[in-house]
Amino acid sequence: MKQLVLAGGGHAHVRVLAALAARPLPGVEVTLVTPQPTQWYSGMVPGVIAGRYAPEDAQIDLAALAHRAGVRLVLDAVAALRPEARQLRLAGGNDLAYDALSLDTGGELARDLIDGAREHALFVRPLHSFVQLWPRLQSLAARQPGLQVVVIGGGAAGFELALAMRRALVAQARVTLVAGNAGLLPGFPRGLRHRALAALKSRAVTVIADDAVEIKPGQLRLSGGSRLPCDAPVLALGVQPPAWVADSGLRLASDGFIATGATLQSVSHPEVFAVGDVSRRIDAPHPRSGVYAVRAGPVLTANLRAWAAGQALQPYRPQRFALALLSCADGTALASWGPLFAHGAWVGRWKDRIDRAFVESFREGVQGTSLLAR
Ligand SMILES: Cc1cc2nc3c(=O)[nH]c(=O)nc-3n(C[C@H](O)[C@H](O)[C@H](O)COP(=O)(O)OP(=O)(O)OC[C@H]3O[C@@H](n4cnc5c(N)ncnc54)[C@H](O)[C@@H]3O)c2cc1C
């Protein structure tokens, strides 16, 4: 039997697992390595924080999915990779050999980008730790009226989480969004950025276009030198490559992520596939978002089947624009697609339908994945 190891239960791998549940891979023993038996669906996490979704609405049961797919489940994490030996070292100390390896482990939040963050901040990734710690912040806010919550990061996650926290904590806390020097939602259409700013202002979320450089108990320092009162810093910055990737021996892109080509294989080690936030398509760079990882899933599945059968692999052509749907935590959402954008309750209902359909599609007895997913 050939050994295929899927590392990480990210957005592409859940689609691979669902496809294997529908049609197994003959002659291949498949193993899934994941630190958690469930995968939080990030698109619904702000809704969980806002109290609009129950935690189970936003989770995919990886253990059940692996079971249905006939895939061996190893609850552990990749700690090191030795591609010359075709071997993974797991955090628990065991080694795992493979003939082909597929990596969909996502990125990590840098703990030391801002002085004092490691000691004092709440990090939004890993999502399971963040969601687990969130009730503690809620009870702190209940005990300490006027608590200063500062969300750091002006991207989609920071925007959605600032509004979600504002909604959940209502009058108990003040919420500030430190969006960074590039301002709120850089890269999004100008009209959408105005609407997003208006949404934050209307809910009394203060927005600061500056970088946070230091966090101390009760205080946050900005690059311009000013200081903000801050009892609960929440870090929602972009992701960095996981530490083990740097020493993996795989060729890396200039930003340190795993360099892949059109067929989703490592450009240096063709038996290693990498998708989603842990990778960088060097032939067709695209932004990091769940959309691209989800869309890579079917091509990855086809290529893993082709690898097993010794057939030619097919290219994944990332879409030019990805649909972004940002929840405003009040039932409305903002949509953007390339230069176009919209805002309203209908966008909120649209996002809700897409997100629920995506998570639902992995439950037992439900066929297929919403084509609209992300
Ligand atoms: C709050 C929030 C909201 C977001 N909303 C959206 C949105 O609406 N739309 C959108 O497109 N993007 C959104 N994003 C971005 C999106 O979450 C990421 O781009 C996406 O999750 C990347 O998918 P992935 O498959 O690469 O990895 P992930 O979804 O991060 O999954 C990686 C998996 O690998 C596991 N793993 C991690 N390390 C290891 C290891 N060493 N060994 C084994 N397994 C490991 C993790 O436990 C996890 O299950 C949001 C992000 C956040 C933080």
Blueprint of the fold:
Blueprint: E1 2-7, H1 11-22, E2 28-34, E3 38-40, H2 45-49, E4 59-61, H3 62-69, E5 72-75, E6 78-82, E7 87-90, E8 95-97, E9 100-103, H4 117-120, E10 122-123, H5 127-143, E11 147-152, H6 156-169, E12 173-178, H7 190-202, E13 206-208, E14 212-216, E15 218-222, E16 227-230, E17 232-235, H8 243-246, E18 258-260, E19 272-274, E20 279-281, H9 290-309, E21 324-327, E22 333-337, E23 340-344, H10 345-360
Parallel strand pairs: 1-2, 1-9, 2-5, 9-19, 10-17, 11-12, 11-17, 12-13, 18-20
Antiparallel strand pairs: 3-4, 6-7, 7-8, 14-15, 15-16, 21-22, 22-23
Helix pairs in contact: 1-3, 1-9
Bound molecules: flavin-adenine dinucleotide (FAD).
Flavin-adenine dinucleotide binds next to helix 1, strand 2, helix 2, helix 6 and helix 9.
Structural overview:
This protein is α/β, with parallel strands linked by helices. The protein has two domains: 2-108 and 240-321, FAD/NAD(P)-binding domain (3-Layer(bba) Sandwich); 117-182 and 192-235, FAD/NAD(P)-binding domain, CATH 3.50.50. 30% of the residues lie in helices and 26% in strands. The protein contains ten helices and 23 strands. The strands form seven sheets. A five-stranded parallel β-sheet has the order 5-2-1-9-19, with helices on one face. A five-stranded parallel β-sheet has the order 10-17-11-12-13. A hairpin with a 5-residue loop joins strand 21 (324-327) and strand 22. Helix 1 (11-22) runs parallel beside helix 3 and helix 1 packs across helix 9. The chain is globular and about 60 Å long. 46% of the residues are buried. The model is unreliable at 369-374 (pLDDT under 50). Residues 7-12, 33-36, 39, 42-43, 45-46, 77-78, 104-106, 124-126, 156-157, 160-161, 242, 276-278, 288-291, 293, 374 line the site of flavin-adenine dinucleotide.
